[in-house]
Amino acid sequence: MAIAVFFQHPNLTLAAFDEVDRRMRDVIGGQPAGLVHHSVYGTDGELVTFEIWNSEEEFRAFGATLMPIIAELGLEAGPPAVLPLHRLFQVASD
């Protein structure tokens, strides 16, 4: 079952987010398996991540790669809100 995941990141700057993203891509070489959508919104220092995953298992497997990177950089990761999706409607893009 597809899930939606929200993370509120206390004090996360855009520069720190970009560094996490760079390191994560270096480790996995591209997009994580099972990730359908990833977006970050908010202001510098008050970022929120919203993701859609094909399954909670794939999300948790990715966390095993992501969390050590976050810890290495001395960042905090608040607990995720994980919610089952009732419907996932994808719109084709140009």
Largest sheet: 4 strands, antiparallel
State the secondary-structure class. alpha+beta
Give the CA-CA distance, first to last residue: 27 Å
| Share of helix, binned | 25-40%
| CATH level 3 topology | Alpha-Beta Plaits
What's the structural domain tally?
Answer: 1
The shape is globular
What is the helix/strand order?
A: EHEEHE
Q: How large is the radius of gyration?
A: 13 Å
Question: Would you tell me the overall average pLDDT?
Answer: 91
Spans where pLDDT lies below 50 across 5 or more residues = none
CATH class: Alpha Beta
CATH architecture: 2-Layer Sandwich
Summarize the structure.
With 94 residues, this protein is an alpha+beta fold.
Walkthrough of the structure:
With 94 residues, the chain is of the alpha+beta class. The chain has a single domain (3-84), classed as 2-Layer Sandwich (Alpha-Beta Plaits). 34% of the residues lie in helices and 31% in strands. It is built from 2 helices and 4 strands. It has helices at 14-28, 56-72, and strands at 3-10, 35-43, 46-53, 81-84. The protein has a 4-stranded antiparallel β-sheet. The mean pLDDT is 91.
Secondary structure elements and pairings:
Elements: E1 3-10, H1 14-28, E2 35-43, E3 46-53, H2 56-72, E4 81-84
Q: What descriptive keywords fit this protein?
A:
94 residues; alpha+beta; Alpha-Beta Plaits; four-stranded antiparallel β-sheet; 31% strand
